[in-house]
Amino acid sequence: MAAITGPEIERLIQLLSKLPGLGPRSARRAVLQLIQKKETLLSPLAQAMADAVEKACICSTCGNADTQDPCTICRDRTRDPLTICVVEDVGDLWALERAGAHKGRYHVLGGVLSALDGVGPDDLNIGALIERVTKDSVKEVILAMNATVDGQTTAHYITDRLEGLDVSISRLAHGVPVGGELDYLDDGTLAAAMKSRRPF
Amino acid sequence: MAAITGPEIERLIQLLSKLPGLGPRSARRAVLQLIQKKETLLSPLAQAMADAVEKACICSTCGNADTQDPCTICRDRTRDPLTICVVEDVGDLWALERAGAHKGRYHVLGGVLSALDGVGPDDLNIGALIERVTKDSVKEVILAMNATVDGQTTAHYITDRLEGLDVSISRLAHGVPVGGELDYLDDGTLAAAMKSRRPF
């Protein structure tokens, strides 16, 4: 196919289409929007990307994505440093923060153990977690992995590794999602919700 | 909510979420991906955006988005300058180009007439089309508007405006999409396909 448009625009489409949630077609639509709103959207976005290239980094303590290292959360002295919530990835950390569900620190594993995908303990940020727990005399580790087989396998593995250290280990509760309807829930969730029922 | 991450990252998420096809949640996922692939994705994308800011422009002849004015298509001397295909927007132009369906030039209207949205003839690139047809002695105008009510209204309006000029006017054929199944087609398309049937 002959070139429809300039190489710079083709390249922008090609790169944007690599983002999760965008394919070639939606990337083209996005780029057209960007060019048509050059002053109000394309220019600010180009500037924001340049800023991010310069400043974005991964916190060397917890693995959060931020523009400073240690990150905003690790620097926050009002947060309990003795409670660490372990999550699979930064997206999960942000989700818990948006919910305001945790007032301690975090630890991002960077994935889960997976025999199928060939992910072993050394590929994850587990060693650093054990070191943090030991060095900082952490009191509680909250395992907030996804409720998938791989997530729970990883949780069990971390529990094994933490054995012998003076730290309590907890996990997120399983149950009916708030606002959820029983009729739409899977059997496993319903069984878990029934088993962990609380006094009313 | 307290800041989870740095202001530069927040701003990047906010701007990306304005792209068509991305919302706040997918923009966050995209930004996390970008930060984690800083060297291979974020940096090249930032550079591509900066290039696009500098070079992207709208062709003053036909309205195509390109990095030069006149655009690649208007500059291409192998393309027939006497056949102009009129489209609603640049995305439609690119779609026809990908299909290799047209060997002439284009004219982008920048929308369609719409009483509901308050879009009148002066809001569209119609005057420039009439001028091109007159000045360049164009032989054929192909109306390739979408097969919507507004698209067809616009096509009729342009036909009226071109009346009296020595130019033949055509429109895209209606019919069964190639690879389409009759059972899934709407009545209007089936009726149009039957009415415009061709000898086998």
Keywords:
homodimer; 200 residues; alpha/beta; Helicase, Ruva Protein, domain 3; Dna Topoisomerase Vi A Subunit, Chain: A, domain 2; 2 domains; four-stranded parallel β-sheet; two-stranded antiparallel ribbon; 8 helices; 6 strands; 44% helix
Description:
The structure is a homodimer of 200-residue chains. By secondary structure, chain A is α/β, with parallel strands linked by helices. Chain A has two domains: 7-55, RecR Domain 1 (Helicase, Ruva Protein, domain 3), CATH 1.10.8.420; 65-199, Dna Topoisomerase Vi A Subunit, Chain: A, domain 2. Chain A is 44% helix and 12% strand. Chain A contains eight helices and six strands, in the order H-H-H-E-E-H-E-H-E-H-E-H-E-H. Chain A has helices spanning 7-16, 24-36, 38-55, 72-75, 90-98, 126-135, 149-162, 187-195, and strands at 57-58, 65-66, 80-87, 104-108, 140-143, 168-171. A four-stranded parallel beta sheet of chain A has the order 4-3-5-6. A two-stranded antiparallel sheet of chain A has the order 1-2. In chain A, strand 1 and strand 2 (65-66) form a beta hairpin. In chain A, helix 1 packs across helix 2 (24-36). Chain A is globular. The mean pLDDT of chain A is 92.
Radius of gyration of chain A: 22 Å
CATH architecture of the largest domain in chain A: 3-Layer(aba) Sandwich
**With helices defined by DSSP (H or I, 4 residues minimum), what is the helix count of chain A?**
8
CATH top level label of the largest domain in chain A: Alpha Beta
Q: What is the helix fraction of residues of chain A, given as a range? A: 40-55%
Topology, number of strands of chain A: 6
- The helix/strand series of chain A, from N terminus to C terminus, equals HHHEEHEHEHEHEH
Distance between the termini of chain A: 68 Å
